[in-house]
Amino acid sequence: MENQSSNFLQQRREKAQALADSGVRLFSNTFRAPYPLSEILPRGEKLAPEAFEENGNTYKVAGRIMSMRKFGKAAFFHLQDETGRLQIYAKRDVLGDEVFNSFKKWDVGDIVGAKGRLFKTKTGELSIEASRLEMITKSMRPLPEKFHGLTDVETRYRQRYVDLIVNPEVRETFRKRVEVIRLIRDFLTDRGFLEVETPMMQPIPGGATAKPFKTHHNALDIDLYLRIAPELYLKRLLVGGFEKVFEINRNFRNEGLSTRHNPEFTMLEFYQAYASYHELMDLTEEMISWLAAEVTGSMEVTYQGQPVNLSPPWKRYTLDQALVQVGGLDPAILKDDQAVIKLARDRGIALPGEAGPGKAKTELFELLVEEKLINPTFVTAYPTEVSPLARRNEEDPSVTDRFELFVTGREIANAFSELNDPADQLQRFEKQIAERGEDDEVHPELDLDYIRALEYGMPPAAGEGIGIDRLVMLLTDAPSIRDVILFPHLKPEAAR
Predict the structure, then answer these.
(1) Mean of all residue pLDDT scores within the chain
(2) Is the pLDDT of residue 2 over 60?
(3) Rounded to an integer, what distance in angstroms lies between the CA atom of residue 416 and that of residue 449?
(4) Which of these, 237, 238, 234, lies nearest to 249 by C-alpha position?
């Protein structure tokens, strides 16, 4: 296959050189097309085939040749731009011998400009009869003939530029992704939230439990980490007096790859002073159901063959309720710390030696419940043991005022009423570091500046993170996170 590809490339280069030798500019930047193809197409709706002789409208268009049919004295080809496709009709009698003979040496994949009259063919297809053709960019590589049929899907991700050229549904997915982010911004801004930016390189990786990427700043002579979360900086802004903030950010976690995980991913995080996780559940339900209606036209979507109803109200369980009602566990076991730890280990869950019942419950939830939550479901009352930044519940301090949102068996959002007691926060940081232990790459370190910020006083607040990539997957029926990230991370190509 590689030899065949090299042969095609060599043939293209030879044709390009022959065109250049004949005076054709292979890489021009003078042709201007004022009309996108999608704007021209509606203009021809009322054109009858006989209007060919009568229609005097002339248009200039530009795009990539996607198909071509050449005859002796004429040719048809389809031009594609960002907005659509349009057929171009080229005739020797109209273009002249020199231009037409040069055009017949052009290839599928070339980017060209055309000018001419709009008409409909005898089969009713809207077309432009070219009175002028101009090479804009010569394509040196042929487009794949059957890109949809590639068995190696990584080729689509690795050569996303080709994927976008030949697969209009892929372009539509990424248009929807842009629309989702724009709508989220509008939704939060309309409700008084301020969009902010916080550091992507941090001296202490905080806000989540994950392995960071590490780098070194030469001038300051300090190690820095690509952020695993912006949380602690956003909450510093609450201390500073901003009461509603959000950030749509890139996070980085030096962990595995899967259909749900990419080392670099996009998160929405937002924080609201004088609010609890209850208000954020209501806000999240409103925002995502509205997003679905705006993007898909309905609150009922299908994800990989499964119907999903996003219409409010959404189901709400405590973690213990979910383990009993969905996971089928005996509620008596959940009240016995040692029994629940033993059950987790009996189910094959590898718990650290210092793990308590809270860790065991969350692992059992992931094993027995998570994949069964198809319609949107809020799960609340997570154990304090696994929620180092969340506020303890005032009636039961063994759990926190926290929720996670699950749709199609996947976590979409994580939120909680924020811990703003500096002494409690310091104690939990110390416990978290002790449990993590030493790391060859990342030395566990207390974020004492964050503790200092809390000591100035942070108002009661709630905060939430929503995975943008997973949300877009849901709204575009994408099976893998790689389908909604333009350039996902992949293993290096094999040496050629």
Answers:
(1) 91
(2) no
(3) 22
(4) 234
Residues near 10 by beta carbon (within 8 Å), at least 6 away in sequence: none
Cβ neighbours, 10 Å, residue 318 = 17
* pTM for the full predicted model: 0.90
Instruction: Flag whether 277 is in a domain.
Output: yes
Where residue 74 sits, what CATH number does that domain have?
2.40.50.140
Contact 404, 382 (CB under 8 A): yes
Beta bridge partners of 271: 245, 463
| Rounded-to-integer distance, Cα 391 and Cα 397, Å | 9
Alpha-carbon Rg of the chain, whole angstroms?
Answer: 29
Burial (CB < 10 A; 0-12, 13-18, 19+), residue 458, is buried
How many other C-beta atoms can be found within 10 angstroms of the C-beta atom of residue 170?
Answer: 19
Answer whether residue 372 shows pLDDT above 90: yes
The CATH number for 220's domain is 3.30.930.10
Chain length of the chain = 496
Question: What Å distances lie between residue 274 and 115, 280, 393, 418, 420, CA to CA?
Answer: 61, 11, 16, 10, 12
* CA dist list (Å): 22 to 49, 94, 102, 138, 175: 37, 21, 8, 14, 40
More confident residue, 187 or 35: 187
Residue 266 has a CB neighbour count (10 Å cut-off) of 20
Domain extent at residue 74: 2-143
Q: Are 321 and 470 found together in one domain?
A: yes
In a domain, 348, yes or no: no
Count of domains observed in the chain: 2
